Amino acid sequence: MPGENLTRDEARERAALLSVDGYEVALDLRSAVGDGGAEPRTFRSVTTIRFRCSEPGASSFADLIAPGVTSVVLNGKDLDPGEVFDGSRIALEDLAAENELTVDAQCAYSRTGEGMHRFVDPEDGEVYLYTQYEPADARRVYANFEQPDLKAPYRFEVRAPEGWTVWSNGAGELTDGVWRFAETKPISTYITCVVAGPYHYVTDHYERVLEDGTKLEIPLGAMCRKGLAPHFDAEDVFLVTKQGLDFFHDHFDYPYPFGKYDQAFVPEYNLGAMENPGLVTFREEYIFRGKVTQASYEARANVILHEMAHMWFGDLVTMEWWDDLWLKESFADFMGTFANVGATRFTDAWITFANRRKAWAYRADQLPSTHPITADIRDLQDAKLNFDGITYAKGASVLKQLVAYVGQDAFLEGARRYFKRNAYGNTRLGDLLSVLAETSGRDMTVWARSWLQTAGVNSLTPQVLLDTEGGRIAELAVLQEAPEAYPELRPHRVAVGLYRRTPEGALERYARVETDVEGPRTVVAELAGAQAPELVLVNDDDLTYCKVRFDETSLATLREHLGALTDPLARALCWSALWNLTRDALLPARDFVGLVLRFAGRESDIGVLQMLHAWANSALVHYASPGWRATGERLVAEGALRELRAAGPGSEQQLAWARFFAAVASAEADLALLKDLLDGTETVEGLTVDQELRWAFLEPLAAHGAADEAVLAAELARDDTASGKRHQVRCLAARPSAAVKAQAWAQVVESDALSNALVEATIAGFGLPSQRELTAPYGEKYFAAIERVWRERSIQIGMDVVRGLYPAHQDRPETLQATDTWLAAHADAAPALRRLVLEARDDLARALRAQECDEAAAGR
User: Fold this and answer.
1) Of 4, 157, 275, 307, which one is the catalytic site residue?
2) Best label site of 350, 361, 406, 681, fewest CB within 10 Å?
3) How far is residue 833's CA from residue 817's CA, in Å, rounded to a whole number?
4) What's the pTM value of the predicted model, to 2 decimals?
């Protein structure tokens, strides 16, 4: 991987020297189906680039990662590929003012989801191709200048096997056996795209009359593998798509600029989705094979709208370098929820954002790798790792704060001016701040420095002083704290809410004040004299990005009456705050688990309920004292089963509790119940045990030795699909056997035969917390292997291995010491690799602190 890196300095130097007029890319993918022999490895890629050089006679390079190059022709001169191509770069010497480069290469099909990914469907043997490039894998498919600020128009043509359909960014047609596509607008390399194969394809149409009276017409398409076609609810995908296009046209005042709008749901996808203009790609798991809750449909709608927002934030206007990745991802993350609430049936999406999305941000912002939203991205490996909770969720949270700070109208008008001034160009932070300053009348410099250019998360705690009788507030202040490593105290626009119980027992808000919090202590004068509260929520309505803390009275109220809190957003914010207290070793894990068992059954928001299940499981696995884990697991399994039986037949809550029960089941009686539910010898009224739920029940059975290889083979025969294969591989690796763990380790670490999806499934089955003793021998092996894996495998597989196989469940001080020893001995290892190890170490150290807190609670 190091030879494939590109530094920011190299990119800046090349951008100052070169400008690109256009690409013509011809791909021959007919080899994809093979000839019945060995699996095809390569395809032909012929690229012609027309570009200018500001300093004739200078040297530069083009990017290409390929097994072989047949020819390189620069300005009519044949160059020796053996001399100019080193495996990742093509040296270009003595450039003219105007240049033409043609590269004929043999590029490799991918099995890791990077470049041209090739997938063979086990169900019917059909082959499917798609590309995925961000941040820099277009060079695996065609020669180019792989950096976002060298935009250009593209013309693609593709030869494909007979009977296939091919899609790209522009509209295409098949003539004389070649698919030819309309020239694109100027775009960056990483958002070009090709999808090819016998996909199931559905069409629709969107039209709108613009303010000038012209009609905008956008052909819509959606596709998936043929095997998923029976499950494909394309009508709902199109519904959200049309709602989103209406919403963004209403608010952006810039017509969708890329012609058609196809959406491809593709197999073995590493990401959630990718914003290729005219051809958005999604992971096919967004096509639901079984019953799911509305939270899953809301998440899919959010992703559809997130990618659609990118058509403007990212595709039309693109960051100059990956330092300003937030200029597209933070905006798209914010706009996804903003549009979901404003345009679709998911009007409570801000609750999901507050409870789920921001949890990702809070975790990332407390890691040793935390960074400002505008990050220091030295090279492509840095860029790959910065698609993180800071860039997405914290950035989106900060934009929500910005909307509260400058006002929604000023914010949207700033976006409109930003698009019009920078269309098809590249921008930096200052370009956005200048238009926001214009539209809001505010100096954005101080705000940007505090929120975009510093790291860390602040904590806000209410301080309540009552009058002598104790019935009224004498003074209410908000205390702001910052971690020692990142001491910035930021300006926060917050709502402070006061809550009391009604005579009927409901916990409801009776007073609310919006105020600006600045510095270590801010007095909220408007609340003086108000009736004494039982609960103070200092970030009511979730306007800012912070960790919410509670005064003693508020915390005591939540311990007894959290379920009585009637407002679902306030309840979600309180759950999130309690989870942060648990992670920070301020609330014992057993107390958090107890709150979930006591109140989660009353949770009306299904997304929040599913998040509570995940947090309770994590509390047991990571933060509970080892001596209490068995007790906690029994209590949680009993509680999950109780709620499963009490839930409304056929309800979303019933399905969520069924999945949670399977996730925590370990006792013999619980495993027996899962087997009976699978066999149909026992039923729960209203619960349909469909194929996806069958696999969810089989995993704990496999992990506890109650479902062997034969049982899993029989289930695969029942579900002989790509999805079924992934489930089976995970269950096989989950079996409690030393031989199984050795085989799984070898398949992932010592071999590259598995695809990215099966690597992920094997890792998931290998490292189960209930099998700590079985995986204990692999801690030492992990540290011995990771530098080699990072060097030899693709960055995606390297990330999966380093993150997924870290011995987190060997949660002892000795594991911390082993990690520190490796870090000390590998000071010169790739910075991205060290970052991953440092993050894993920090998670483990946090878990050990939380376990100490929980152990101390045992003596209460």
Assistant:
1) 307
2) 681
3) 18
4) 0.96
